[in-house]
Amino acid sequence: MREAPLPDVEDFSLYRVIAAEDPFPYSDSLHLDFLHRFGPEDVWAVLRGLPEIYRLPLVLVHMHDVSTKQAARLLSVPLGTLLARLHRGRKQFEKDLWTYAREHDLLRETAREGT
Fold first, then answer.
1. Consecutive sets of 10 residues in the chain, 115 residues long: mean pLDDT of each?
2. Distance, CA of 115 to CA of 112 (rounded, Å)
3. Can you give the pTM of this predicted structure?
4. Neighbours of 14 (CB within 10 A)
5. Residue-wise burial string across 63-92, b where 16 or more C-beta atoms lie within 10 A, e elsewhere
6. Are the C-beta atoms of residues 53 and 88 closer than 8 Å to each other?
7. In 3D, which of 1, 6, 5, 2 has the Cα closest to residue 94?
8. What is the DSSP string of 2-25?
9. Which domains are present in the chain?
């Protein structure tokens, strides 16, 4: 597998964007309020959009609790490569999560209330 280019991913910070955009101005837990807007289907939709070389490490390590060493062995890549893919994958996931939230109107106070 070849590395997929991820333009502007290294400069993106979900934490900074949420703080700057302040989508829930009366929230005392802004970042948690943002994350609670997503159901499992939303998270999977964002994950499915990632290139496989980033999606697989994220799913193995963060969803199936596979150690990074074991994930590297399973994917037949050096540990350093896996760690780099996890970093880049997380950054792309954060960016795509923000985009998904904007496109699916999850940044309003009334979105997902009561769920």
1. 58 79 75 87 96 96 96 97 95 94 84 49
2. 6
3. 0.76
4. 19
5. eeebeeeebbeebebeeeebbebbebbbbb
6. no
7. 6
8. PPPP-TT-TT--HHHHHHHH-SST
9. 29-103 (1.10.10.10)
